[in-house]
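WP5 quarterly update. Target: N-acetyltransferase domain-containing protein. Source organism: Paenibacillus marchantiophytorum. Length: 152 aa.
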Amino acid sequence: MSLIIRNAEARDQDSLTELMFAYIVGFYKKPKPDTSKIHQLIQTLLDHQRGIQFVAEQEGELVGFATLYFAFSTMRAEEITIMNDLFLYEPYRNTEVEDQLFMHCQHYTQHEGYAYMSWITGTDNQRAQQFFDQKGSVRSEWVNYSFVPPAP
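Structure tokens (predicted):
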């Protein structure tokens, strides 16, 4: 089996869009965003200005993706990465493919000089929590909040 973890490229747009819909709608059960918005997000990440996407390619097919966004830590006064997404189709979870995609994000963070990589996962996503715990990840002492502006 040939596994390749690499930066997303423009030629991946259609397959990456399907992966992102599987993640948003299939996994998280959220409303399907407009395809043009997904394409705009992919293009923004292809430009590497605000973040970067990696894909897992198995036997020529995209089977997973990870997204890192670039931000700053005021506490460290340094740039950090935020792993916003780590998603694989079901047969590839808990496999070497998932390990390699996650490690690729860690290596990128380290080799590009970011202070650290942070991420969150759903409180009910026990599988992901177990995966991260097994990788030696440290649980944060912070509680996450969100503000969602009311619809106009």
